[in-house]
Amino acid sequence: MNNEDFDIVVIGSGVIGHSIAFRLKQDDPQLKIAVLGDSVNSLQASRAAAGMLAPFCECDQADTFFSFCRESLDKFPKFLAELFSVSGSPVHFSLAGSLMPSSNFLETWEERKTFFVRENIPHEIWSTEKVHQKAPYLSADCGEVVWVGEGQVNNRQMHDSLMIASKKLGIHVLEANVSGFIREDSTIALAMTDAGKVVGNKFVLASGSWSSQLASVLEVSIPLKPIKGQMCRVQLDDHFMNYTLHGRLTYIAPWREGNGFVIGSTMEDRGFDPSIENEVIDRLIDKAAKILPALKTAPLIESWTGLRPAAEDLMPIMGKSTKYDNLFYSSGHYRNGILMTPNQADYMSGVIRGTLANEILEFSPNRYNL
Ligand SMILES: Cc1cc2nc3c(=O)[nH]c(=O)nc-3n(C[C@H](O)[C@H](O)[C@H](O)COP(=O)(O)OP(=O)(O)OC[C@H]3O[C@@H](n4cnc5c(N)ncnc54)[C@H](O)[C@@H]3O)c2cc1C
Fold this sequence. Notes:
By secondary structure, the protein is of the alpha+beta class. It is about 30% helix and about 25% strand. It contains nine helices and 19 strands. It is globular and about 65 Å long. The model has no long low-confidence stretch (mean pLDDT about 95). It binds flavin-adenine dinucleotide. Flavin-adenine dinucleotide binds next to helix 1, strand 13, strand 17 and helix 9.
């Protein structure tokens, strides 16, 4: 491809790969970095997500994963400001918060509220009267609602902004797939791509759902697979709802700025199946319309299929390889990769540059002997 040798070669051009490159370059501007990957594949995760930044509605126990996600939410405003200052490409971001209707959580409702109190999570309980004032278009059947202080981002704009930032920072972005590696004992010397060889000092595997395929080329077996999600986006004016809505097996994410509402999503263990089923999309809309009735007649803008990279224990895989001297992983971000992006980028920059004080054992590649 070229005669350059890179300090760091990141394999994967989704939000995870680009954000690692972005943070590394901010931390050490001298680094020569390449990001490899076919951006079309990112349509299936980084650009397929709903953009919910929801550590509180997604988690129900205060473990390491929860703390990491919570820290990441806190880092979002600064991360996006830094990103904008480099890319000049705006990203819609809101901290208006999320709503959880009690009608969807009957048996776990008291438990959820106790969790919010115990973990000091910013939240308010809204009576049906207050719901009517604050979110008048919600169905009266929602009952009592909890407002939770979390966020929403337009993940497609964030991915665009990251890709622009990479180019502006002089990161070499190569739209090519890696098909193999040349190794010398336990050191990776170069990656082979359909556009030629890429020589690097360190390699980062950030290839989402495709990470296990790539790792198998290195004779490493990552227990990770794609979990398919079908979703859609409908046209409805912004004023219908400012909040992200978390129901049971349904969510509604406002993309605002006239971009309508994203409705999600299925969880299907069906490999790399790209199919979209109209009847599934209709069911998603029906379920969401029970909470926000205006969705029932809102025109469909698009529907799509995404792939969540899920490790066997559903934890991210982040850190240094135990098998290769110069290989690092950041994958398996499953349902929360958009949320984890800022904290993950900081963490991985520390791991790769060797400045990280404490490894998070729950996330370590060591647990799978990778
Ligand atoms: C339906 C759905 C809804 C979601 N909603 C949310 C949400 O609301 N909030 C949230 O936080 N998260 C959400 N997620 C999860 C989030 O989207 C993912 O965790 C995150 O995008 C993973 O990012 P990634 O960069 O690792 O993967 P990807 O975006 O999949 O990127 C992987 C990259 O690897 C590259 N690649 C693959 N194979 C090769 C190869 N051989 N050579 C070179 N490059 C290669 C691809 O080209 C691609 O660029 C959702 C996911 C889905 C599917």
